[in-house]
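Feature request disguised as a bug report, sorry. It would help if multi-protein outputs had a clear separator. Right now it looks like this:
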Amino acid sequence: MVDALGSAITLCLIGMHGAIAVADVPQFDEEAVQRGLVHHVVDGAFGGAGQYGCGVALCDLDNDGDDDVVAMGAAGDQLRIFENNGSGQFIDRTVGSGLPVTIRASGLVAGDYDGDGDLDLFLTRWLQSAMMLRNEGGLNFVNATAQTLLTGITGPGTGCAFGDYDADGDLDLAVGMRTNTLANQMRNRLYRNNGNATFTDVAATMGVDDAFPTFQVLLHDLDRDGDCDMYVSNDKGLPGLSWNRLFRNDAGVLVEDCASEACLVIDSMGVCVGDLDLNGLPDIYCTNIATGHVLLMSDGPLHFEQRDAEADVQGNATGWGALIFDADNDIDQDLFACSMMGAPDYLWVTENGFPMVDRSKASGLGDAQDSYCLAAGDVDLDGDVDLLMQSRLANLRLYINSAPKNHSSVSIRIVGVGRNTHAVGALADFEVHGSTVVREVIAGSCYKSQSSYVLHCGIGTEPNAERVTIHWPRVGALREERVLTDVPTGFVLPVYPPSRLGDALNDGRVDPADRAACDACASTEFGPACAVFDMDGDCRITELDRAAVLARLLDVARDGPVGARDLAHLLDGWGRPTLDLTGDKTVNAADVAFLLANW
């Protein structure tokens, strides 16, 4: 538990940094149409046969370093994809993409379920069959629902999530169902990834097949132990009959934990997670009807205290999608919530701790449309977080952020381990000027929608992030960790796990080409292409890094030290190119001499 003194210190630190933002309100300009996002949503009505909004995705689907857009719900029911050209301008690439016509499309999540390095799409539909769309590269998709054994998901599908609940290194899938909608009794699903791009439903076995009307499922490492827990946002809460559910992950077994005080009884729709008080633990925010949204602040691993009144973030409108992010790049976290029925959306900014300040109107985000689904990412790569919003009977809204110009940020893209190629479930602790904020890579980050996989942290007027500690999700008993220092601004920094360092081609070994590339990086300005050779994490390539890369090249046996085993392996590979040390594409006397000279 955080004691009273600790809480006071935390709020004081928030206030110190938030004071910067009082006069520096971020500005958001709606620019969807002029940036090429022409997509008028007509589907997703409130109630009955309507699916309460249609999800959106803002993530890098072609692996070119910028975030693309997927949208649903337009006339004709065509799922559409828009490619980002690198400057935040979008080109409609739907024709030839293989994306299908999807009647009653509802929820959307992106994750690399087959471990081939690109993001696939899973979408729920309202009383129609859900779909798994496999990414073949180049913004080309195929319907892989049958091959993945995910047929028969025909209930009122809502928000879904990917995560590795069993810590076996691949992504499992949780699917929300608003059970008992129009008498349909299909319950929530949890699918274990079998490791061969197929899935098995284990929801009933795990006891997570809610009969409640679910709007969103999150898979998130709420207690920071390296595996994902589950939080379920349920509508029509009634004491003893329906409530939000938190399932603690105990070594791959999901156990409901209402002692956490997170089992709310409200009309819960959207749910998001983030560290609002900068205590290193994730807080939970649930949108509700106009009686008031709920903020659950974590005061210890898997223990929460309701503090929405203190934070003044209850609102007075029925809400849907919500996100915790740093809108003004001042280190602390802010909160955005979509609203409907003529009420404006909310942007609450942290300026002097709690209460937070409603800056919706001043920031340009006071949209009175019926807004449902929401995603966030830096679409124009200018260092601040933009918002993509789906409103009904309106074009998509793309709010371009102009954060205070005197504020900077750092952005990282965590490279995954094994089949979890995008590091879903990884945590990063950003330390800036005495404060620490935790961010997580999430697949299924908001109500029915997918936000960017890039982790963003505002740093105010500081020159860099002093320290970033990355914790990869646990695979079996192994959990890789890494520390970076003096993390620079100005670009998205790829962060590689320790096991991958030095291996630019990801072919399982450090070879002469890797060594040559590392040597070249030592004489150039540090940037994304050189990050894989930053062996000591100081965001520079120095002689120490070059020596460490050389040591990995010489470690032919891959057992750590360079010695007799490496020589034996080298001799065993005589005349073959796979263990070449000198770059002449064969193993011969020159390689032996090189190894002995550097023994």
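(second protein starts here, but nothing in the output says so)
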Amino acid sequence: MNAAYLIVALPLAGAILLLFGGRRLVEPLSGWLATIMAIGSFVCTVIVWASLLGKSADHRLVDKHIFTWIPVGSLHVSAGLQLDPLSLLWCLFVTGVGSLITLYSIGYMHGDPSFSRFFFLLNAFVFSMIVLVLADNFLFSFFGWEGVGFCSYGLIGFWFERDTAAVAAKKAFVTNRVGDFGFMIALFLMFQHFGSVNYSVVLAPLARGTATLPGAFATGLALMLFLGAVGKSAQIPLYMWLPDAMEGPTPVSALIHAATMVTAGVYLVARAAPIIHFSSAAQWTIAIIGAATALLAATIACNQNDIKRVLAYSTVSQLGYMFLGEGSGDYGAGIFHTVMHAFFKALLFLSAGAVIHALHDEQDMKRMGNLRRYLPITFPAFMIGYWALAALPPFDGFWSKDAILAAAYHKNIGLWIVGVLTAFLTAYYMTRQVALVFFGQSRWFDHAKERGAAGDHHVYESGVPHEAPATMTVPLIILSVASMIGWLLDAPFGGLNFIDKWLAPVFPQAVAVPFSVHTGTKWLIGLIAVAFALAGFLSGVAAWRRAVDRPRLEPAVLARAWYIDDGVSAAVSGPLARMANAFSFVIDARLVDGLVRGLSGAVAASGRQLRRAQTGYVRNYALGIGVGAAIILFYVSLRAGS
């Protein structure tokens, strides 16, 4: 179990070495160092998982104290690790997928002048995410939460010389601060009510059923925690930062959108399940916002032309599915989909990166086409990820999404209908993407000639697209296998539901909502979901098998993301900016500055008056001393007489 310390220490050591020695560790040494540290952290996680697996279900919780972080009054916060089924499951796919993405980055970032800085940020990001999920209290987890936010700011804005990248990084940073405000309020409420922020004090008694929470307090606390999750996991209304995060390098997109940062909110809701269990209002809020986000993002993805932006809106939609499962009370289903999504979405993003690499940084799908002939590894890898995301059997997404839809059906049939419609749209927009990128005419050739005529001779002279190097294709192969057979981790038959059994101690009956759906009903709703997914697939094939430009199928309102982002930007730069300027003039320039100037003027004026008493004549000072002594004697005589 002591290997747990190395899970945290290895990526931290890698980040420190790259921070102070990055200039000496030239390419590709810095990339291999970061990869070795990430793989080492994954190996240590496997060792700890195996040790925990050897214990009985009731004893699969081990605390590892590192040091006392904040010993102030009655607030004692440790920097410690809680090793339990939930934290280790998250750590397994964070370090595992993170290692593959780091390895992939060695090839993708080849030749970048800031090669070492990129891998420093990757290792720091993995370290922060590990702290977030392994922490034994909410405050230490918040430390990792903020570390992830800082690293994502640096990674999204990695190419900060581009104005769009700098703006996207700031947008992500500011939007996440809104969610962090909710997390902070939750911390204050916890300390006020429990006198602690440790999981053992706050969550354990609630999970055992030996303590309860007042309904109103539980609702307030749960909603504040969920607000933090909404920001980090890009749910309505704080989802707008995630598509813009595509400005970062493609490995960053895979790291943020697949296995790590965006799943932090899902983890927080799962960890706080003993609190959420006492608030029906919070459960309904989580389920409704999850379903609404899934449907909204899926509609927007139907009319995006950037290959990574389609996948970004898809991530927002799939995160909505995860919250739909958790809000419906089936935390196991939500987490199962989180793990499967880590496999197939990382595969899709890394495959998209291979496409972009082959086309010399081209990301517009309408300038691609017929790439299946030139990318013999990337094409089947992308197809596997596409089938898994579209929830077509027997790939990963089918099994995990089916479990969520069953939970939603039990919760409310309206939620289930939204989930099924989203499945239809998912299959449609992914079919559209595959058709535009890998089938049809080779539109990239004409565009390469245009770029060559414009002076970019490297693009024109480099010839046909080429497959990526081994450092990029090996992770694709591994993730392809995981996307095909990963569902066996929680198969709903033959006693293969390992994730459900593994998480059972974390979500006992006092936490999860017990429910069962009749086997016949499961078959029916599963078949309906598959039918809608197939309908989406056939609709995509019918619409895009020949034509590239189909304006009648692509309303501008979807291309502009329902104008929500435009509306927020207009409001911020318009009336909100004017209101801020007005407040700045009235409060800052007049009230605050006026008060400061007034006090300083009063002090200066009193100093000038007092200065008149300093004449420099000894006789005046002697007179003052005499008068003062007389006054003191008079006062003493009065006190003595009384």
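Even a blank line would do. Unrelated, but nice: The radius of gyration is 30 Å.
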